[in-house]
Specification:
about 400 residues; mainly alpha; 14 helices; about 75% helix
Length: about 400
């Protein structure tokens, strides 16, 4: 059993690295093509950024494999022996928190390199050390507080309920729904300052746009995204009465009013087509598959690793192997998501015009240094949006990328 799961994880990492190698090779050649969509300087810069991020991703994958060998070969057993707590639910909270903490420390250098070297080199990151440290402390506190509560509840279910995996799935799926509802009003404001939109004319136009599609929101807000990053974005967050229109301050600075309204029109298309609910349903399907698998692990696996068949070891194994299931589930989510993006583009262009939305997408790509070309393999596994060339062609733009 241990050999089997080791081979599965090795093949998973090998495939990820292979996809990244193919993408690096593809982009390395494509960056010498005649620039499309992006300005010539941005085109080369975007290609170089893509190459460097993929190389970092490959290194991260290799570190993940080393971590897997550590946890399966020694780490899980070591934690089991280290923590001597009779209350199994409480032991699960401590065990999984330490497991997550060690993995966090292993991944931290990648986050620091990304934020303070790579993204700064390419003109994205504006974050300072103080903000970074405060963000990390807040994220850790949220994980310990709410993550600990979830681990405790899940442990209680595992210990006391037959076919616990189904009830555990319902618990986690319910938490997904709650997070979607409270994110824009509780979680996001812990990291960014939300300010009601001050531009009264723009606010009036946005509210008119919302009224056209029957969306009632909690308000239109801007956030101080520029204190961390220069990239542009906007989103509708929340469910039910908690829905908010959120504009990055960088977006307001860079886009013309009609372009911004076309981007919001695109996001409204997702609302009108109930894409958020579709994504939640797909996430629910993924969770159900995971819980069905991890709720029926053979005793031989626990014996081979040297840990007790207990809530804490089940949850740790869930966290170790769930990325594999997610990875092979991503193409399905990608197919649905890319289809939804085309439909949202149609809706957004109808709110303003195809030319206006196309202009906005080009500006977003130039400001965000999004390389417009990708290999089919990389697109299949990782792209939630259609490649920009295809989106612009669907909006009537004539682009020659041969």
């Amino acid at each position: 059993m241990l050999l089997t799961i080791g081979i599965i994880y090795f093949l998973y990492i090998l495939l990820k690295v292979y996809i990244s190698v193919m993408e690096v090779g593809y982009v390395s050649k494509a960056k010498y093509d005649t620039p499309v969509i992006l300005l010539p300087s941005n085109y080369v810069k975007a290609a170089e950024y893509k190459i460097k991020t993929q190389r970092m991703s490959m290194l991260s994958d290799l570190v993940d494999y080393a971590s897997f060998i550590f946890w399966i070969g020694f780490g899980l057993k070591w934690l089991d022996q280290l923590i001597n707590i009779d209350d199994i639910a409480l032991k699960s909270v401590v065990y999984v928190s330490l497991f997550l903490g060690i993995n966090y420390l292993v991944s931290l250098p990648f986050s620091i390199y990304q934020s303070f070297y790579l993204d700064k080199k390419f003109g994205f990151s504006t974050i300072d050390a103080k903000t970074f440290i405060i963000d990390q402390i807040k994220a850790i506190a949220l994980t310990l507080l709410f993550g600990g509560a979830v681990i405790w509840l899940l442990s209680k279910i595992i210990l006391s309920v037959h076919n616990w995996w189904f009830w555990g799935f319902l618990l986690l799926f319910g938490i997904v729904l709650i997070i979607n509802m409270i994110y824009p009003t509780f979680i996001a404001p812990l990291f960014n300052k939300f300010t009601p939109l001050e531009d009264s004319e723009l606010k009036q136009d946005i509210e008119a746009l919302l009224a056209r599609v029957g969306l009632q929101s909690d308000g239109v807000f801007t956030i101080d995204a520029s204190k961390r990053d220069n990239r542009l974005n906007a989103y509708f967050g929340g469910l039910g009465k908690s829905k908010r229109v959120v504009l990055f301050d960088t977006l307001i600075q860079k886009l013309e009013k009609n372009e911004l309204l076309s981007v919001l029109g695109h996001e409204l298309g997702h609302f009108k087509h109930k894409d958020i609910l579709k994504n939640i349903a797909l996430t629910g399907g993924l969770l159900l598959i995971m819980f069905a698998l991890f709720g029926n692990l053979p005793q031989s696996l626990f014996d081979a690793i040297g840990v007790h068949n207990a809530p804490y070891s089940i949850i740790a194994l869930f966290l170790i192997f769930s990325p594999i299931i997610s990875f092979f589930y991503m193409p399905l989510m990608g197919i649905v998501s890319r289809h939804n993006e085309y439909k949202a583009d149609e809706f957004g262009s109808a709110m303003q015009s195809k030319a206006t939305l196309a202009s906005a997408l080009k500006k977003l790509a130039n400001e965000n240094k999004s390389f417009p070309k990708t290999s089919k393999l990389f697109e299949w596994f990782y792209y939630t949006h259609p490649p920009l060339i295809q989106r612009l062609r669907a909006l009537g733009e004539k682009i020659d990328d041969d």
